[in-house]
Amino acid sequence: MLDNLYDGAYLVDDNDVIVYWNPAAEQITGFSADETVGRSCSDGILAHVDGQGACLCGTHCPRRSALHTGLCTETATFLRHKDGQRVPVSMRAVPLNADKPRGGGTLAIFRTDPTRGMAAELDELRSLALLDPLTKLPNRRFCEMVMAARLEEMRRYYSPFGVLFLDVDDFKRINDTHGHEVGDRALHMVAQTLSNNCRLFDIVGRWGGEEFIAIIVNVGEKQLAVAAEKFRALIESASLPIASGRVGVTVSIGGTVSGMDDTSEMLLKRADDLMYRSKAAGKNRSLVSG
Q: Which of 109, 150, 220, 241 has the CA that lies 20 to 30 A from 70?
């Protein structure tokens, strides 16, 4: 799928060796796949520099930074074309195994047109396997990356955010009664309800199965509780047309607000525990705590 991107893309393995070079990379850089695949990225093929002409290869390499931190990096840089000229590009480096920093290799994507913006590209996210194919929402991997970035922002700027964990109630019964096709449509309905009713700068994603997650920025406990109840009520009021009538679903929600000492695992565990308390209290409920 990377072959079809308009952006240049290349994969580098654990040993710093280029293992893939897409057609757009050939067009932008002038280097063919035959000239790059199998070579070490540290050879300085593209010899990236910043706006002051300082070399970014080595210790300042954005791709290596992504590999070592497990976080995406985005950099404005200037690569060296095969013919010698400098080409301005926006470059994003994505670690391929965020759970294993310093391992798993990296994917680098770059483009010559900075006006398209790199943050809101659902087509590219799909190509990078960061979108859930059924619901078209960001998947678990992407949400984990966003949460890690939000934690870094919080520690830097003291801006708390909230995490909501949502689970569709009695989803097995829906599958058993109406079939998996209706079950899939019900998940898509929940996904679209969440996506259509979150703020532009918030993220909702599919965590897996019938579980969803929402990452809500710049909120305290009260605002997060309002957001959770809004999602719950809107999902309860939605219904899916089927041959025999309509099928509705409800969700149980747990939510928590980030603290300065939190890790992603701590946030998720609190939200998950609160979600199960919502289920134990009767389902179709939201419960938010700090």
A: 220
